[in-house]
């Protein structure tokens, strides 16, 4: 154990930034904004437990690297959280899957343009089911699985609905809405799974009466744990510092869903589309000029090409990016579909998405068992 720990610490020392200069026992703040003391790594049981864990993930390793606060007589110092804070940090790290457990990438060609997805593609996609009273049941928004108890979606999918509507359950594992189970080329998926809603957590600064639609994000906790299968899996979130700060301009991004198509009606098949980000300043000018709306850096704009956009039925659904992992490529959630022009795919008016990386602290602090 000591030999293994020594080797791991040596690797960490060479990998991390050596410009930090706190002294031993100084007060500090770790990467998750928890207060602590700057002490030798060997004296911090919380960090040691991560380093010696058999389930050490890249996210946890990066957390340890970014916890370094100095060096004293050749000994690496880390910001060791207090007992209460370390329990909270450990809990948060455990509540989201590591990159080897989320964002599974298929092997299909990804040059798409509003085309039908292969069966099983984007297995984190969820549909929000509403009881509309006398009008019956309907699915009108999307979301994404982020762990085995929570779906992430847009706040307006919860608040900006008719008074007679009530969100009842989350449907998982959907592909073609007219069949159950779904089959393609002699391969059949499992039956869809409907899970009742237990709790809804809206961002406290979302204003459903405000026209700017900022902080358009919400979490839905389901009543029973989600069972992962080949057809139902979580998407990764930007938990690492590199993903939180990564620029997605000029990167290929993807949207998917069952939303309104050029024929206005919702699609019966899950569709996907590759799309590019538009600089926020350019997008903000368009919305200010056409709609007198202001945008913020907590939003992302994509699209603005004729007939290439996500539409109303995709509200709350994912904006995704495929990146290379240590072993395999994986998908992570860049944005959540928020709003756009009245007519989907309007030239020079991009769609607006909630920027997930700006809300990671809020997301992690609101994940409950």
Report on this model:
Pfam families: CLIP, Trypsin. It is found in: Secreted. Residues 111-368 form the Peptidase S1 domain. This is CLIP domain-containing serine protease. It comes from Corethrella appendiculata. The protein has 369 residues and is an alpha+beta fold. The chain has two domains: 26-81, mini-chromosome maintenance (MCM) complex, chain A, domain 1 (2-Layer Sandwich); 115-365, Thrombin, subunit H (Beta Barrel), CATH 2.40.10.120. Helix content is 19%, strand content 30%. It has eight helices and 19 strands. A six-stranded antiparallel barrel has the order 14-15-16-19-18-17. A six-stranded antiparallel barrel has the order 6-7-8-13-12-9. A hairpin with a 2-residue loop joins β10 and β11. The two termini are 32 Å apart.
Sequence stretches where pLDDT stays below 50 over 5 or more residues? 1-19
Instruction: Kindly state the percentage of residues in helix.
Output: 10-25%
Number of strands: 19
CATH architecture annotation of the largest domain = Beta Barrel
CA-to-CA gap between the ends? 32 Å
CATH class of the largest domain: Mainly Beta
Order of helices and strands: HEEHHEEHEEEEHEEEEEHEEHEEEEH
Keywords: Disulfide bond, Glycoprotein, Hemolymph clotting, Hydrolase, Protease, Secreted, Serine protease, Signal, Sushi, Zymogen
Protein name: CLIP domain-containing serine protease
Domain Clip: 27-80
Domain Peptidase S1: 111-368
